[in-house]
């Protein structure tokens, strides 16, 4: 006689507590949760939150700063742009990743989620040295092969000397007699990222490094797409002057007066002479003198309203009605045809706000102010004015104390 087995399901409230938690779910579901929480668009594609101060007090022609260029950075590996101690930075955190604390939950979550984070995101660097320091000095060697997408682009040109006297990994200065090739550290780190599938770099990276380019297919066997990046910045001529290499986060007077544009050109990885010295030289020349020049001309003439010739062909006026009417936050991406017959994609990172956006934000601000007044709290503008008044008063008190001290010393 066979034994009979009776299976009785437990009520929902009697299931083990572990099955109701994250680690009690099947691995497939946990991976979906990790992907949803940790994978985000690249920072140059993100915009400001509706409650960000950069979204308000705009006119029809003022520029909403790109979230990635006013980002409150936690670590600034290569401070290319000067920030002085007395600077009052105008910045925000809208382009930051906000769910990374999930990786700190426990060791099992970190072990399962970290590979998803490193392999599914596109990591954007403003400078090749940022990539070298962040990936080569701060990222664990075990995670470097997990990187799949790297994008390096900046509105400032890369310095391109043949040699350097700085050790990027330790920050120490190298004696002039022991200086090393400028890009040796960059290529050394890049070659460790063997899982890369897309790579976008500035043209200065490949100018004199044909041998490294020729070895890309061998050192990065999974590479599917290689791009050269361009980013332009255009400031209203009536705005305040910004010294070269001055931090944009410290220049509040021009943050709403400057347009940023980015584009990229794909490189044929299957070219017969890929990586040759003459090939690299010709590619660099064609990209910098044709592609970039054509895009700069199109942006100036078509979108910013500069004249094709005459004394105003280099003059940029953002507040006189010259800017393309359809260029706003409702349409940031444009496909343009180059004189060569090819098509390029322009992504405007900083553009004027559309009328619909300004009206929507105005209604939200009025509703928020009404709710705060109803609860007996000051409005956001009133709080800001009170903080500024307290700051000015503190400076006045300090100045008065210094003057009194100097007067006593003079007696």
What does this structure look like?
This is Ribosomal protein L32. Pfam families: DUF7730. Keywords: Ribonucleoprotein, Ribosomal protein. This protein has 411 residues and is an alpha/beta fold. It is 32% helix and 13% strand. Helix 3 packs across helix 4. The longest helix has 31 residues. It is globular. The termini are far apart. The mean pLDDT is 86.
Strand content of the residues, in percent?
5-15%
**End-to-end gap:** 115 Å
The largest β sheet comes out as: 7 strands, mixed
Q: Globular, elongated, flat, extended or rod-shaped: what is the shape?
A: globular
From N to C, what is the helix and strand string? Answer: HEHEHEEEHEHHEEHEEEHH
Q: Which whole number gives the mean pLDDT?
A: 86
Strand order of the largest sheet: 2-3-6-7-8-10-9
Low-pLDDT runs of 5+ residues are none
- Cα radius of gyration in angstroms: 27 Å
Q: Write down how many β-strands occur, each being a DSSP E stretch of 2 or more residues.
A: 11
Note the total helix count: 9
Helix fraction by DSSP (H/I, runs of at least 4): 25-40%
Coarse structural class: alpha/beta
């Amino acid at each position: 006689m066979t034994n009979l087995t009776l299976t009785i399901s437990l009520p929902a409230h009697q299931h083990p507590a572990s099955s109701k938690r994250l680690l009690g779910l099947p691995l497939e579901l946990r991976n979906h949760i990790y992907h949803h929480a940790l994978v985000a668009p690249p920072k140059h594609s993100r915009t400001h939150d509706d409650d960000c101060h950069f979204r308000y007090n705009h006119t029809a022609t003022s520029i909403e700063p790109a979230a990635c260029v006013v980002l409150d950075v936690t670590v600034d590996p290569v401070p290319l742009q000067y920030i002085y101690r007395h600077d009052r930075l105008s910045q925000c955190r809208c382009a930051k990743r906000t769910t990374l604390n999930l990786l700190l939950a426990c060791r099992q979550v970190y072990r399962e989620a970290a590979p998803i984070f490193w392999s599914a995101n596109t990591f954007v660097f403003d400078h090749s040295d940022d990539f070298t320091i962040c990936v080569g000095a701060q990222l664990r060697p075990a995670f470097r092969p997990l990187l799949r997408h790297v994008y390096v682009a900046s509105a400032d040109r890369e310095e391109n000397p043949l040699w350097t006297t700085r050790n990027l990994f330790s920050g120490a200065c190298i004696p002039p007699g022991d200086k090393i090739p400028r890009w040796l550290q960059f290529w050394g780190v890049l070659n460790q990222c063997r899982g890369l599938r897309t790579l976008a770099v500035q043209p200065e990276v490949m100018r004199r490094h044909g041998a490294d380019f020729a070895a890309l297919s061998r050192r990065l066997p999974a590479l599917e797409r290689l791009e050269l990046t361009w980013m332009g910045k255009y400031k209203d001529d009536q705005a305040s002057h910004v010294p070269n290499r001055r931090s944009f986060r410290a220049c509040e007077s021009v943050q709403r007066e400057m347009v940023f544009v980015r584009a990229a050109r794909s490189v044929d990885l299957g070219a017969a002479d890929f990586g040759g010295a003459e090939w690299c030289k010709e590619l660099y020349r064609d990209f910098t003198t044709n592609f970039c020049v054509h895009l700069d001309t199109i942006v100036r003439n078509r979108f910013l309203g500069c004249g094709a010739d005459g004394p105003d062909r280099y003059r940029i006026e953002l507040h006189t009605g010259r800017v393309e009417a359809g260029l706003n936050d409702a349409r940031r991406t444009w496909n343009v045809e180059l004189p060569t017959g090819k098509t390029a994609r322009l992504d405007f990172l900083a553009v004027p706000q559309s009328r619909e956006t300004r009206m929507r934000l105005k209604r939200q601000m009025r509703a928020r102010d009404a709710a705060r007044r109803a609860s007996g709290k000051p409005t956001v503008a009133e709080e800001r004015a009170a903080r500024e008044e307290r700051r000015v008063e503190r400076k006045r008190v300090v100045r008065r104390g210094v003057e009194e001290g100097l007067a006593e010393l003079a007696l």
